[in-house]
Amino acid sequence: MNLPPLAAIRVFEAAARHGNFTKAAEELGMTQAAVSYQIKLLEERVGSPLFLRLPRQVVLTEIGARLAPATTEAFEILRAAFATTRESADGILTIATIPTFAATWLVPRLGSFQMENPALAVRLKSGREMTDFVRQEADVGIRSGTKEWAGLVCHKLFQANFTPMLSPALAASIGGVKTPADLLKLPILDPSDPWWNIWFSLVGIEKPALRGDLRNRLGDQHLEGRAVLAGQGVGILTPFFFQPELQQGQLIQPFDIVGSSEHAYWLVYPEARRNVPKIRAFRDWMLGQLGEATA
């Protein structure tokens, strides 16, 4: 059987991924009518419906559901092939990362990676949005989540643990922090963070009366960490991100008790690109760095 027109297959892949003809049309720069027409051509070629048309969405039929993963994989393989041929020309590694990981861990160490890989330039894309490797330009990603993602190679980096931290000056303002209850005498930077109740429960304090405005939000951990360093209050932070500040005495972790989040941090990239040299180089470097940090 000859392949159907590539344009129809591309439209099907986008529509299956979005579950919506309108969104597929927006991605491909087409009209919705053109998308519907291409899907109809493909269904005629296959000899069976690929979508059930519902009032506000489309749903893959059994045959469509079998076909969709293969088409996505095929386009990813094509994308990887073209990207591989481009590597010798541009030599750029694009890393999509969440802000806290970039600010506290990755950026201070990138010089080491570039010394080991002088032919590679590095571009960072920092944001909270989860990178779509099909639609966005990125070679690897750093994500936070509770489980691995289908279609991606996922290397678990570390668990998102948490514990209170504060500046030495703030601790000294109450004569030192000797018991968990002493923290309740100090301003809390983000008292609405659910990590607080979890941590205090671990030390036997239920429903702690936290000092601070429940409306306050600093968002990313690296921003909260800066506020903690400035002595503005007590933060609940992931120790992994603040090892230099703890070792230099800029921050205090008054207790060894650490809470554990379901979330972990992951290095991810498409399965079809696992053997691309620049991705392999970054993966090996990062896992080596983390191995030294946790040894």
Feature tags:
alpha/beta, 8 strands, Arc Repressor Mutant, subunit A, 295 residues, D-Maltodextrin-Binding Protein, domain 2, elongated, 6-stranded mixed sheet, two-stranded antiparallel sheet
Structure explained in plain terms:
The protein is an alpha/beta fold and 295 residues long. It folds into three domains: 6-85, Arc Repressor Mutant, subunit A (Orthogonal Bundle); 91-144 and 267-294, D-Maltodextrin-Binding Protein, domain 2 (3-Layer(aba) Sandwich); 161-262, 3-Layer(aba) Sandwich (D-Maltodextrin-Binding Protein, domain 2). The protein has helices at residues 6-18, 21-28, 32-46, 62-90, 99-116, 168-172, 194-202, 221-229, 243-247, 277-294; strands at residues 51-53, 58-60, 92-97, 121-126, 140-145, 152-165, 235-237, 259-270. The strands form two sheets. Strands 4-3-5-8-6-7 form a six-stranded mixed β-sheet. The chain has a two-stranded antiparallel sheet with strand order 1-2. A hairpin with a 4-residue loop joins β1 and β2 (58-60). α1 (6-18) packs across α2 (21-28) and α2 (21-28) crosses α3 (32-46). The protein is elongated. The model has no long low-confidence stretch (mean pLDDT 88).
State the end-to-end CA separation.
56 Å
For the report, how would you describe the main beta sheet? Answer: 6 strands, mixed
Query: How many distinct helices?
Result: 10
Mean pLDDT: 88
* CATH hierarchy: architecture of the largest domain: 3-Layer(aba) Sandwich
Categorize the overall geometry.
Answer: elongated
